[in-house]
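Is this the right way to post structure tokens for a design question? Let me know if I should format differently. Anyway, here goes:
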């Protein structure tokens, strides 16, 4: 998640929820969603 333009608070929340890496689908679509 660190390589995307996501707020530190969101990254902290994702980490706290146990998410450590993107799924294949998330990796393929996240940059498009953030535009």
């Amino acid at each position: 998640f660190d390589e995307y333009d996501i707020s530190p608070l969101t990254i902290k929340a994702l980490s706290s929820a146990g998410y450590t890496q993107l799924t294949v689908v998330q990796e393929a679509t996240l940059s498009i969603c953030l535009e």
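Format looks fine. Someone answered above. Worth noting: The chain has one domain: 1-35. The mean pLDDT is 90.
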